[in-house]
Amino acid sequence: MKSTAPVNATALAAAATSLYASSHAAETGSVASILFVDQSGQLGGAEFSLLPLAVTWAAHREVLLLSDGPFRAKLEALGVPVRLACDTRVSGIRKEAVHLNWLMALPGVVRQIRTIARHAEAFDVLFLNTQKALVLGALGKPLHRRRIIWHLHDIMSDDHFGPLQRFIVKWLARCAVDHVVANSHASAASLVALTGCKPERVPVVHNGVDLDEFSRAGDADVNALRRRLGLPEQVYLAGLFGRLAPWKGQHVALEALARLPELHLVLVGSALFGEEAYAESLREQAARLGVGERLQFAGFRDDMPAWMKAVDVILHTSTEPEPFGRVIIEGMAAGRPVIAAAAGGVKEIVRHRKNGWLVPPGNVEALTEAIDILHAAPELAQRIADQALIDVSRHFSVEAYLEQMRRTIGKVTG
Ligand code: UDP
Ligand code: GLC
């Protein structure tokens, strides 16, 4: 995996801090201190969503990570204090195979519950950002007795989670979590269905994107940009951004690539959470389909605005309902037309033919046709991309996200 040097880190820290400081300086005194807990050292969407919040939180705050990785470096480069509480047995537990693994990892689980509880005592609020953080942080509530906010980034359906995980989450959400914030109405609805709680108990705050970061990445000459990034020039190029994982559906894009002989495709992202076998299967699929020459695996990249601006069209191909889909709002902020799988939180972002193009998840024919239509009609593609840029700046800016998160957390912490 490529290292994650803090590109634009200082600028982000300065911009984000000044944004928070200028609009809320007067309230700083009443802001609760927060211990943010995240299970991952990797840079996934939940971590990118936590980043600006942790950077700009005006009171005492710290991030406790249950695994080490580039997320720690990024947080530290932005001035956020980080603590590690790693246990490889516990971090090795995968959500699909939760039962046996939990039992084997029990001593580590107990240790981590205690560690989180001990750290939490120095803060007003425990902010749990991932599933494992929720379980370990909430189970320790009798020890730390802190208010718990859970940032729900997942659709709690049985497509995504096993019965035991859903059972545990249901009871912890009911009994130990004080407040939930969901990343989309789709995620919120899944929690309401699971727990039977009232919908108003699960407020929704959509993710936001730093629009300045995208406007700074120049796109005057796309071919020069492609040359710099090692991408093919003078061809119609699609980009798919995100970790390589079966439910992200990169295999669907490869099938479409095979049906469109003029198309080139770049996959940006790596197997972050142990999905190396899937990454390998994509390479085999590409060889089988004979599309290897028109396909590039770029690996994990730290400069998404440039990579997104280097392509003609952005694909989102998740085969399961996407809880939110940061890559979609990023693609919109890059001023590129986005073709997205119409399920979950995606439908709260994309309006078909207006600011993007929706296709049924996993439908190769529909994806192929959508790419073909936008390729053949550049004015339509441009109109959609222009509207996308307007919509993303109206509804999905990082400023709006921070403001809503701040207000929501402020309300619950009094
Ligand atoms: N991302 C990145 N480099 C890559 C691939 C992805 O920085 O090579 C980022 C991407 O910009 C986005 C996040 O990873 O902010 C993925 O978030 P998303 O919500 O789309 O999906 P998740 O992986 O969280 O399900
Ligand atoms: C999760 C979801 C993704 C969402 C992100 C940020 O990782 O899979 O859809 O965009 O969280 O909320």
Give structural attributes.
globular, disordered N terminus, binds alpha-D-glucopyranose, Rossmann fold, binds uridine-5'-diphosphate, 48% helix, alpha/beta, 2 domains, six-stranded parallel beta sheet
Structure characterization notes:
The termini are far apart. Mean pLDDT is 91; it is low at 1-12 and 14-28. Strands 3-2-1-4-5-6 form a 6-stranded parallel β-sheet, sandwiched between helices. The chain has 2 domains: 9-15 and 24-208 and 397-413, Rossmann fold (3-Layer(aba) Sandwich); 211-395, 3-Layer(aba) Sandwich (Rossmann fold), CATH 3.40.50. It has helices at 9-24, 45-56, 70-77, 88-91, 98-104, 106-120, 131-139, 141-144, 163-175, 185-195, 211-216, 222-229, 250-259, 276-289, 304-309, 326-333, 364-376, 378-395, 398-413, and strands spanning 34-38, 61-65, 82-84, 125-128, 147-152, 179-182, 236-241, 263-268, 295-299, 313-315, 338-341, 357-359. It is built from 19 helices and 12 strands. The chain has 414 residues and is of the alpha/beta class. Bound molecules: uridine-5'-diphosphate (UDP) and alpha-D-glucopyranose (GLC). Residues 44-46, 49, 153, 183, 207, 322-326 line the site of alpha-D-glucopyranose. The site of alpha-D-glucopyranose (GLC) has 12 residues, from helix 2.
